[in-house]
Write a structure and sequence with these properties.
This protein is an alpha+beta fold. The protein has two domains: 145 residues, no CATH class; 40 residues. Helices cover 24% and strands 27% of the residues. β2 and β3 form a beta hairpin.
Length: 196
Amino acid sequence: MTDPPEKGAEAPDWCYVSNVPPTLNGKTRRSYVLWKEYVAPLIVLEFVSGDGSEKRDKTPPSEKEDGKVGKFWVYEQAIRVPYYGIYEVTKAQVEVYHLIDNAYQLMKANERGHYPIAPLGVELGIWQGWYPNADLPWLRWWDAQGNLLLTGEERADVERQRADVERQKREIIVEKLRSLSPEQFNALGIDPKLLD
């Protein structure tokens, strides 16, 4: 603990913490604080700005004059996060480390170019495409079979498209039914009033 507390805080760009309830003191959770909850993240992702050296800094507290320890050291030795990813958008690459025997080991990508995060049953990798209005190499998740996991917006778009196709099919059927004669309706056993 430092004074003020934020002086000693490390905040990752993105993290996933399992086994933390969605509510805190009966209210919807708005934050997560490691030193209060004692549950380490399963995976931490850092997004590189500059040359990325601060994300790869392994300097322990005993060697830092300014007291600011290296992020790599913090995640590996202090917090012991099982998976640590460093994403460089300018190079369209991600490095993923897995904590094995108390030290990070650089993971090799699988045949799809993804990094399996076994406890979650997902893979992390780079996807090139448009998202939100920018064509960039994005960090994305896939299931263990290599199927891209859609964002909420993408799922909504798929559902809208499915609903549009269903609506169009119904309209075609109704138009065909409207072209039938009363005798054809009788032969089909359909009440023509259903089309009104």
